[in-house]
């Protein structure tokens, strides 16, 4: 085998390793070899060897039988390192704390990653509310106020390039047509914030606003509140608090 062939094989192995880790990251729990093979399409023999290597290194774990696989603890260490070292997350902490105090609702900081948003930080509501999101979770941008706030900082043509014509439906309220979403993005640009009214989770409304320390924006903050508790006065308080938080974060991130 030539040096070029060896290099190509190593690159292929690296790609497969990343794809495997992303598979496990997106599907919590344990999975059989057959299930993993069906999802990724690698030859079963090479897949098994790759899994065994990742298990030995701690990136993948197995159950007591040694026949089912899931994400390993080393992935958590890397993810935590990313959060701990992120300048925006660090700069946002005081603002997120204040926004949580001002609204008494659940607060999120998220980043656009392709067609999804990834949650970087969260503050739980003072009221009882099942935690629908967690740090590291990915959700479709088109169904969240965070995602829509960020997509609104892109041009219509950029959005058309990024998103497919038909969008996944998460609830009966989800916008599933790209052109309809683009029309809403125009409204978001005018009013300065985005809304998600039970489009991602039934019974929950969210308000999101982008942080303009770069263009197009990469990060946004949101406030989530159960529909049953959302009065017009409370909604106005949330919108005002989000605008204030955006202005504070714009100052805090101006050096980034």
Automatic annotation (TrEMBL):
Top-level taxon of origin: Bacteria
InterPro entries cross-referenced by the UniProt entry: GAF-like_dom_sf, HTH_MetabolicPath_Reg, Tscrpt_reg_IclR_C, Tscrpt_reg_IclR_N, WH-like_DNA-bd_sf, WH_DNA-bd_sf
Keyword match Transcription regulation: yes
Span of domain IclR-ED: 74-256
The keyword Phosphoprotein belongs to this UniProt entry's keyword annotation: no
Residues of the HTH iclR-type domain: 11-73
Key words of the record: DNA-binding, Transcription, Transcription regulation
Protein name: IclR family transcriptional regulator
Species the sequence originates in: Streptomyces johnsoniae
Lineage: Bacteria, Bacillati, Actinomycetota, Actinomycetes, Kitasatosporales
């Amino acid at each position: 085998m030539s040096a070029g062939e060896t290099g190509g094989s190593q690159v292929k192995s690296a790609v497969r390793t990343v794809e495997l880790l992303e598979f496990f990251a997106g599907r919590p729990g344990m999975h059989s070899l057959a299930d993993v093979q069906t999802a990724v399409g690698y030859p079963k023999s090479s897949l098994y060897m790759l899994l065994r290597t990742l298990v030995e290194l701690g990136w993948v774990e197995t159950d007591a039988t040694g026949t089912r696989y899931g994400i390993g603890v080393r992935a958590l260490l890397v993810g935590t390192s990313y959060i701990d070292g992120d300048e925006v997350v660090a700069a946002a902490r005081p603002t997120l704390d204040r926004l949580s105090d001002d609204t008494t609702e659940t607060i999120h900081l998220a980043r656009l990653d392709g067609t999804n948003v990834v949650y970087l930080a969260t503050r739980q509501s003072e009221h009882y509310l099942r935690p629908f999101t967690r740090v590291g979770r990915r959700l479709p941008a088109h169904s969240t106020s965070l995602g829509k706030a960020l997509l609104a900082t892109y041009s219509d043509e950029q959005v058309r390039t990024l998103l497919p014509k038909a969008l996944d439906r998460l609830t009966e309220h989800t916008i599933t047509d790209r052109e309809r979403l683009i029309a809403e993005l125009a409204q978001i640009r005018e009013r300065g914030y985005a809304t998600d009214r039970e489009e991602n989770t039934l019974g929950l409304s969210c308000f999101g606003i982008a942080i303009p320390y770069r263009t197009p924006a990469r990060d946004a903050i949101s406030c989530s509140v159960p529909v049953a508790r959302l009065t017009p006065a409370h909604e106005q308080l949330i919108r005002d608090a989000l605008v204030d938080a955006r202005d504070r974060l714009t100052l805090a991130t101006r050096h980034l």
